[in-house]
Amino acid sequence: MGTTRLAIGLIALTVLGFVHADDGFFGSGVETVYRYFADVRAESQVPEEYASQFGIKADLHVQSIDGSKVFFQFQDVSYQVSTGPLDTHEYSEAKFVKSPPESDALKQPFEVIYEGGMVKSVMTMDEPLWSKNIKKAVAALFQLDMPHLHYDKPNNFWSEEKSLFGKCTIGYTVIPKGPGYFDIMKMQEYKRCEKFPTRYFTNGEYEKCKYDHQEDSLLMGGTRYYKLSTEGGLKIKEIYAKSVAAAVPFNGASDDQSVLVRQNFTFVSAKPISEAINFTPVKEYEDLTYVIPSYYNEDGTMSDLSGGRVHFDKEVIMEKMHKSLEKLVHYMDEMKVVADPEKLNSQVIEPVTYYIGKLDAECLSHCFERYSKPKTTYEENLRGAFLEVTAQVGSKASVLFIRDLIVSHKIPDSLASEILRLVPLYVREPSTALAKEYEAILNVDMDSRVKKSAVLSVANMVSLTYKKVHDIETFNHFADMFFESFKTATKYGEKLNYLTAIVNLGDGKAFEYLMQVVEDHHISNHLRYVALWGTYDGGMKNPTKVYNLYWPIFINHEEPVEMRAAAMKLLLMTDESFDRFLSIFWYMQSEPSSQLYYYFYTGLESIHTTQHPCYKTAGHHAERFIRYAKPPTTEYLFTGDYYMDYMDPEHSIGGGSQFSWIGDAHTGAPSVFYYSMDGYFSGCSNEYFAVQIRLTGVAESVETQLLKVDREAIKMGDLTKILESLHIKPTHLEPFHVEIIFYTNLRIVETFYYDESNFMKLVDDIKGIGSSLQRDFKLRHHNVLYSTIHEYVQPTDMGLPAVWNMAVPYIQTLEGNFTHDTTGPRIARKNSMEYRYGRTGGHSLSFYNPFGGLWQGAHRTFVHMYTVPMHNHMSIDFAQKHFKFAMTRDEKEDLHLGLVYHVRTQVFATDHTSDDTLHGSCPTCSRFVTVHKAGREDRSFNVISHDCPQTGMTYKFDVFDCDQYEKPYELVALVEKMFETDHINADSGDIFGEFFMQVRRMHTFLGLSPKVGSCGMVFQVVPSTEYKVNQVEGVVQMTSEESKEGHDLSVFPGGKYTVRGTVTLKDDEKVYHTFDVNTFLEQSAGHVSQHFGFKVTHSAPKQKDYKICMDWESKYPEWPADHFAVRKAHDEEMTSKITMSWGESVDGKCPTDGSGFKAKFTATPAENDHEHGLAYPYSECAKDSESPVWKGKPYKPVTDACFHSALYSTLLRKFTGYAKYYNIPDEFFEMASTVYESLEDVIDVHEISGEGHHLTVEVSPTSEKHPGSGKTGVLKYDIEFDEDKPHVEFHFGWEGEEEEEHYLVDFEEDMAMWSSRFFFWRRLGYEMGFLSSCVVTPSTVLTLDNDTFHYHSSHCYTLSSADCSDHPKYAVFTKKVEGPYDVAVKFYAGGNYLEIVPDVDGHFHVKVNGEEVAGGLKNGYQYPEGEQFYDFKLWHKDGFVTLFSQLSRVMVEYTGHSVSVTVPAMYRGHSCGVCGNFNSDATFSERQEVSSSCPHGEEVGNYLGYRYTMVGEKCPEITEEMTKHVQCGEHH
After folding, report:
1. pTM for this model (two decimals)
2. What does the buried/exposed string (b/e) look like for 141-162 if buried means 16 or more CB atoms within 10 Å of the residue's CB?
3. Which residues, in sequence order, are CB contacts of 828 under 8 Å at separation 6+?
4. What is the DSSP letter of 706?
């Protein structure tokens, strides 16, 4: 037993000694031969397995000199290549062919140095990079961690190895297989490799979102199996390596692509070296790490990822480029919507990009010479396409070529600006040297627009370079240069340009400069605003520093509202923590500016349901706070912050838009507007484009410079002097200022600026557009752009490059020919215009086959294309108030209106020239093979085809080249998904926003559907072959007649308005259809009653006339003289009746034997408890009525509570009525039933029964007979929009049926919106800030900003409200008088005034410019009389007087006890008087000043009254000195 143990021990020691010997696993002086076989394939697995395959066979000779130095050499190399259906478990049957001479470098020997069985270094001969990388891959397979290798029993251990992928962690599993044999399995953890070789480029600035997965790399996995023998020394008998690199885009819901690599080394022989491998190294030792070629060659051209396998002849490349460019331009000219996969998927942009990238600057100049002086439209398009694509190539040569073109002024200025925008965004490898060379474009005299584009282009180049190489010195040099230029520039446009350049830099010293600009109040607020937003990037890195910048601006009420809004948003964006949101939320709950609060509230409301992964944190916070935020008291049409977004969670793709604007503090009109559109996929968000517009002083400048208004002619001098006597400093209106900033990928690329100095240039530009419509002209615009590029490169296990590429280029063209002819009042035009858009993007995963010189891979394309044509002849005749028109479709030029989507997957093997290489190994293979599901021969079918006789067009919807759908009904699920709204956020209530997001989501969804395989859908509108309508003629006449009745009794005069017209559809020989239209609207004074009707008659040859008639009358109750009076519900009753009929017409009359209905309804407010004063606002109004200020007055108090009492008591909440139907076709009810069933899923609709729900409506009996086969019956309804539970009850009953059907519809919100007294549009004007009213009594003031204070009126006129700009248009004064009426009013409009003064007997005296008006208030009065454009007009009814001025657009309502002044938003921010300054702040500035110094709150109003009182004999208590100040202490 002991002898046996000793023998085993000796054997074990011998083996272990051999394993750890320096001879390694090849021995010393031994030549080992392996048979090598590799199979590489780029695959697409579904719906069928297809692959682009490459195989290699060779003998690998390995000569070991001393165990640590080993020489390798491939011999007898052959390869195969194939494309098509190929199962993963099958091997290609393509034949192996001898490797070509171009790949002989692989046969050169290479040396490997080992240490402990691990590769220490590799040395090769002078050979291309591709060959070196393959040899490194082979050496990496032939290594084992021998010091840690034990095989006496199964074991596992971790090791670190150098490999193609850097320094990696390797898991070893050792499995003994019997005496003298064992296996090893090595698992490589690719993600844990140090210095993993990759190369990644994208043309956009992307924000990674932590709430979603990232897809910016390939998924790697690999395993290596070793069979070893210990007989006669350790020997590797076989190596089998299998690895995969996979691209899984769109959350794995699209076509997965992978590169599978399988390699096998099988032991053939081992014998002493008979002939040593001849190895002459010329390079130093290298490690095993794969080397990815740099982007640029020495001449600035794009290096090829083949690693030197392909050699280019410049002349050949230039010629190929020219041919590819011509093909591209022809494609742009002929691009059409067709159901042809080959035409749709034409690769026309990529070859041009590829070939231009291979040309140096000199060759590019030679190419440009062909296009530099275009003589035809085609040559212009060639030049434009060449320059656009060159600007997006991204090679160093292309950048310097573009620079030289700009410097030498060889291209038009407009084209130069467009090219300069693109260049920096596509540079593949930014460097300090390249940025400095590019700077030369700043040192040349050029057009101002090109100069501005050049400044921004250089700034973008420097910014991208800084992010790549972080050269602080160079970066600061440019920041200093731009800031110095900003400081020394004298014109605003130049300052804006240099400031936006600093914004593009954004970091480091540029960030400090931007902060300086923001903090310097001597700089224009417009520039400070731009700089404030420019601090965002730096603020993300320095949140504490920008907090100290943003917060003081945010809380400073002296700052413009847009500055405060921007600071607030930046505070939230630079720190999305809950505490930051909470602190701003708490602050905003007491914010006095209703405009800023509305901006804040709309932002919360629109983002709280966001679907965008990048906004999830902000959305979660907003969702919490919106529950507790107080609703805004005032809505602003032109102020708000709105987010809209959509997501397709299945594909993890989506997008969004931000729509933000702030109204002008003076007028409420748009002042600052911002719109952006972004996209989201692969875990990143990218802003495609954005535009920011600032407008100020536009209305004033248009009035002054275009309309040439002579302000002095309006006699405003007296009013100006009066306001000056009150020591009122006029508020100067903002000067004309239009500023536009364009962004691409978060970078500013162009700015435009207009002020009063170049205002007429803008006018001339606009006039130029208008004048072009009065002459013949042509329009040609072609655009080629890569909107998205993602390119990711990494090695495969075999040493070949794997490239995952997503490129989305698109083409858009706009072409038009317009001719013009004028003869007297007749204008004739021939218009031919067509817009075409085509997007041919996709993603591919490919590898390079160095033996065949082929790129092989799998490519999935997403094609979207549409064309919008307009080809017609049109004539218009303006004679005799007739608008005559005629349009003729040109059959020869008329192209099809259409939209097409198509997706497909292909495997490919191509050298971009011929099939020779592929056919040499696989004669039946094609370079491009489409992946199709087996067994489908006919992959196309029609869904809809409809000929429309009215339009002469055929509407078609077809499915083509489709694997996934075989019948139309199979599209139902697709359509349902397409219209899903679950993942759309457009909660701002903007219908357009919801529609826009739905369209974008549908576009995205269709572009990716189906998930796998091929399918196309095309919608086309083409000229009908059956109905050849090609001409439309018509005439329209519009008339209006103002009613004389009641004209002087209402501010809303009545009248009658009619529109008559005829439209004829025909061809060259006959008339197909004629439509006669007659419409009228008749309104009484005050719009109390309205009568609307229309008749449409259709005539066609050999057919009876068909006519539709409708007549609708409605009547509102008369307004009470006291607008705030609360009446009984029946006193507010509104009635309406409508009659409608349609059918065949006899003698032009409305049909009597057709179908139709007669309906009547009554609307009243709901019964409420206002008479008892039990609830707000009635209880609060009752308290106001008992206050000393209002008690005993003959009208309701003019307070907010009483206004809402009147409003709520007049809201029409109850609608009852019936509709009598006759001869309604069954098809109509079938359609209604379908709609009802659809609504059941959207709103709460359910059937009710029981006596409690039964409603009886008496219908007057009728003797009318209505023959026909349709249904006749009655629809009765009872609608009540109760605040607590709004609902609608419907009751159906049909003639001949005893039972009725009852339905109830519930609503989530109060739906009442119409008032019998307060018209909807005026209420909306108040809510949106377009209108505001101030009410003044002898003791109280309700300001324009809805603030109330008390004061004691004097017997001298006090300024209530006025236009306090430098050119005032109105002023309203009030004073206290004695007698039954206690208030007098004086209303200035321009240089004239009207005064109403009651005497002690209660008689009113009316004066105009000091002259008594005969008749006083008994008759209406207008000044000047008989003119349509008047200074003021007076109406009197039941003791209430209304004054209105067309000059100032101001309305004054006077009762003798109060004065109400209603002003439009044009006076916002420059009003003055006790009514406040109308700036959205609840407490206006002067009241704040007085409040801060007055010890008693009730004194505040008194001193405000002093401030605005015109001193005189009747108020000696008020001195001249008192009117100059508002400091309370000065009057004690």
Report:
1. 0.82
2. bbbbbbeebebeeeeeeebebb
3. 820, 821, 822, 873, 874, 875
4. I
